[in-house]
């Protein structure tokens, strides 16, 4: 199994500290991001096989699932390379900042997680889960 991970610590946060870790599993085409920051902790999973991503927000006791925007997200290979080269630490990757994405969360709970793949089922099973849709830039500029 090919597995790469990196830990990022930030003790300069106002009023506390936090740590993020990014893990890439090339065998299953999955990236996992853990943000450990007290009550604001969350876990993110990008499943490159299914094209879905999920975020589990611990203090909200909820999962949010969305389609991955492959134009805005790095490929798994690029993410793996950044992790191996420690380019996710402190300064971040070189180049322009990533495009910001805005989502609208559907208030109706998802009843069947199976369509999102085994990894997301494993992370969100037993937790209220909601689907989010990306709001396109042209839509947000007219609002």
In quaternary terms, these chains amount to single chain
Mean pLDDT: 80
Structural class: alpha+beta
Distance between the termini: 47 Å
Q: Beta-sheet strand percentage?
A: 35-45%
Low-confidence stretches: 1-13, 139-143
Helix content: 10-25%
| Shape assignment | globular
Element order: H for helix, E for strand: EEEEEEHEHEH
**Tally of DSSP helical segments:** 3
Describe the structure.
The chain is of the alpha+beta class. It is 15% helix and 39% strand. It contains three helices and eight strands; from the N terminus they run ββββββαβαβα. The chain has helices at 76-84, 118-124, 137-142; strands at 3-10, 18-25, 30-36, 42-47, 52-57, 62-67, 102-109, 129-135. An eight-stranded mixed sheet has the order 1-2-3-4-5-6-8-7, sandwiched between helices. The model is unreliable at 1-13 and 139-143 (pLDDT under 50).
